[in-house]
Amino acid sequence: MGSPGWCCTYPPPHSSERLRAQLAPTPLAVVEHLGHRQRRDVAVLDVGITGIIGPNGSGKTTLFNLIAGNLKSSSGNVIFDNEDITNVPSYELFSKGLLRTFQIAHEFSNLSVLENLMMVPADQSGENLINNFLKPNLIKTEEQKVKEKAKEVVEFLNLGHLTNELAGNLSGGQKKLLELGRTMMVDAKLVLLDEVGAGVNRTLLKDLGTAIDKLNKEKGYTFCMIEHDMDFIGRLCDPVIVMAEGSVLFEGKVEDAKKDQKVIESYLGRGSKLKEK
């Protein structure tokens, strides 16, 4: 896959073809003029983990929904892995390696942690009723491979002690780890994390950060994450994008964002200092 990267444009001065030709190495994703009722632009980046911050209503989640196919775009383009995926539905993007998580974890509460992970891979032979009668050995072999993969993910995330626990009984932070584990079941290329740290205690937040960092450095995952916790963002992300009213207000290092007057005013009002949350 090459070096992991997240790339968007703001403002987009050229066509998609000319822009991609100018950027080296080839970025994993390019977003241009992307809009939903109003134009939304994002900055040029080429890094492994990018943070997106901004006040409520600044367009962060809308941007994710547009990229991930959960919303239809009224304008602009999304290029992913050299393919135009503008308005491609989320289930098709899933098979291409572009996944997202949500602010509220979505788990199968009556299935175990292991079973939740085993549900993720698409196009399993056992989903076809006829195969259950004609190809039982194939199904058994596939299920065993998926199960072994799920066990590896559980251990990677330090959830081994919860392997057989019902997912509905997990804490908020453990459910967020489980969501991250789902992305590992399909070897994602780009993962959009929407407030993965929200409602997570400090201990599990540290575990989440460690897992994200390891996935980026050891497995080549690219992450773009929306967060409000500046400590968490500062630990993982370089650079960070600050959004306001659907556009980029700032891009750069977290330390510089905390001192930028426009960022300070956008978050807390004129004359205030940006506080770590």
Could you write a compact summary of the structure shown?
The protein is α/β, with parallel strands linked by helices and 277 residues long.
Secondary structure elements and pairings:
Elements: H1 16-22, E1 29-35, E2 49-53, H2 60-67, E3 75-80, E4 83-84, H3 90-96, E5 98-100, H4 113-118, H5 129-134, H6 136-156, H7 172-184, E6 190-194, H8 202-219, E7 222-226, H9 230-236, E8 240-244, E9 247-252, H10 254-259, H11 261-268
Parallel strand pairs: 2-7, 2-8, 5-6, 6-7
Antiparallel strand pairs: 1-3, 3-4, 8-9
Helix pairs in contact: 7-8
Describe this structure in words.
The protein is of the alpha/beta class. The protein is 39% helix and 16% strand. The strands form 2 sheets. A 6-stranded mixed beta sheet has the order 5-6-7-2-8-9, sandwiched between helices. Strand 8 (240-244) and strand 9 form a beta hairpin. Helix 7 (172-184) packs parallel to helix 8 (202-219). The protein starts with 15 loop residues before the first helix and ends in a 9-residue tail after the last helix. Mean pLDDT is 79; it is low at 1-25 and 43-47.
